[in-house]
Here is the input.
Amino acid sequence: MKNIILSSIACAFLFTACNQKNKQTEPINSQTTNSSSALYTCSMHPEITGKKGEACSKCGMELTEPFTGAPAIETKTATVVATESEVQPVVSSTFSIEEIVNSYLKLKNSLIKDDSKGAAAVGKIVYTALNSVNTSSVNAKLKAEYLEIANDAKEHAEHIGNNAGKIDHQREHFAMLSKDINDLIATFGTKQKLYQDYCPMYDEGKSGYWISETKEIKNPYYGANMLTCGSIKKTL
Ligand SMILES: [Zn+2]
Ligand SMILES: [Zn+2]
Here is the structure.
């Protein structure tokens, strides 16, 4: 009998304990849903809401912006629209690939003259030009695209700059640099009228492309040996 009483007391105690737990959580839930007018958001993450002064769960900043009720989806759409409208004025006064293109053309002209030392000197200028483009005015997507191409191009410009006297090695990197320059022009455009030329002899026809400012064919891969070998592939 004692046992039965004891166990029923235990049961009753457990039951109340459970019941109390449920009652305790209830008011917290109703508070968060009812008092949306007192919600605050993070200035960086408008989708994060909480009480004023609480920390943003994404970045830890204090929630200081009064929550206006705009759902996260609307904010996302707004960002996408902004990104699309930013695509237009890419070639602004602050972001420009003209310096890169101009120094590349000088490099190409040095190779046409079989001038390895000159090519090395201009290769360093191409490197500097690739490094000094102002990417702060373009959106994150275009900045990433620029950096991906430019990082590869910088490596080739560096090798051309460091290999004065080894014109064959410089021309190998020039072929790969030319592809990068072509990609930059395709992505960001240029103010100049340019041509993409192609030499079917170089690298068994695999990589002999270059960009030129003149309609006349002057081959940077063979110089005086085969100056007029090649043809215009397209106008850029
Ligand atoms: Zn945040
Ligand atoms: Zn190399």
User: Anything to note?
Assistant: Residues 42, 44-45, 48, 56, 58-59, 61 surround zinc ion (ligand 1) (CB under 6 Å). The two ends are 99 Å apart (CA to CA).
